[in-house]
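Record minuted for completeness.

…
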Amino acid sequence: MEITILQPRFKDSSHFKDFWIKGNGKELIDFSGAQPSFKDFEKFAPYYYHVDEIGDEVAKDVYLTKKFHEASREIEGYIRNGISENDDVPESVKKLLLQTQKIPDWLDYDLIKSGAELCMRSNLDSLISLRDYCLMGGYDYAYLNKPLIATEALKKGAVKRLSETLDFWVNVTRYDALEIHKKGYEFAIKTRLIHSYARLSIKKYYKNWDTENWGEPINSWDMMATYIGFSLVFLHSLKKLGNTFSPQEEKGIFHLWKYVGYLLGIPENLLPNDKKQATEYFYLWTSIQPPADKDSVLLAHSLLNESLENPILKYQFQRKNLRYLHICCTWFLLDDDVCRRLQIPDVANRNVFPYTKWFINKIYDKTVSRKARIRKGNKDQMKVLTDYLKITQNSNFH
């Protein structure tokens, strides 16, 4: 097969230029002091056709040789108990776990703690940022969404998808969660293997996969962009909602997600250390992504309507109000062009709630201690997660 040489194919398109000259991209440049250019494009481009081969081997050896729940249980045992060179386990499992059990020289647990504290301290703003900026904004990148479409995420529904994302995010952002064998570490490894399982399934069953344009399914470059969503885009969203953070917390967020990315098998040279690097890396990746297509619109509306379908709130008027608030935040956090492409409905007084939030955050920041905010944020986030898990683990819910 002829090797594709990737070009920054959308760099002259209006959606790319508008984003980086007058939209959120410009705000990211101003926020980070980045100096984006295409000089490093050729260093990054090959990762569009690169995947986590170690994870794929484990998926072949374990997940494809037995029932999914049996394979998951087996993998959980290895992760929780650890393995050594002499253990009688498949070579692929040994290779993956010996790699992830080795703590990299650059890892700083104090920085990870600072990043986790910011995630907790920002309370429900963290969850608004993840949902209405990171997740919704990601739907504007048409090729990035193709694995979701191929694995029939729309049939599974947004409630289940949100629940899984929340479960992962909460569990990797608590105190000490990423220490070897702890819960966040386990979530990272299991997520890595689910990515591999999904990739192998797409390659086997989805005959229309367009590798040249879409890259390999769940490729390393797309993974980098996704994890920049959890760090750079997340921070930018918190800032827009009126939250402040210290230089230590900011460094901590990037360090936390660098380590999560490392555990997930993303090549280390794709994992940014700070907001400047992250913006410059993200700039290159966005040049290969076309704007929202009809699949993007379907995913966006599935997420918007999640509030109406989700039985956590008992009454219809409460669900409609929650949907309205999410629409307000989406318009506030994303570019108008992106909202129009995703066909986000326009609503009356859409800035009232986000500006009220911004104002309250400014007061809250000055009047409530950092420790109290971390404690309350952790409690409130765990409550939201518990509610979601109760709903989605009920087998009657679809």
Observations:
- Residues 234 and 332 are 14 Å apart (CA to CA).
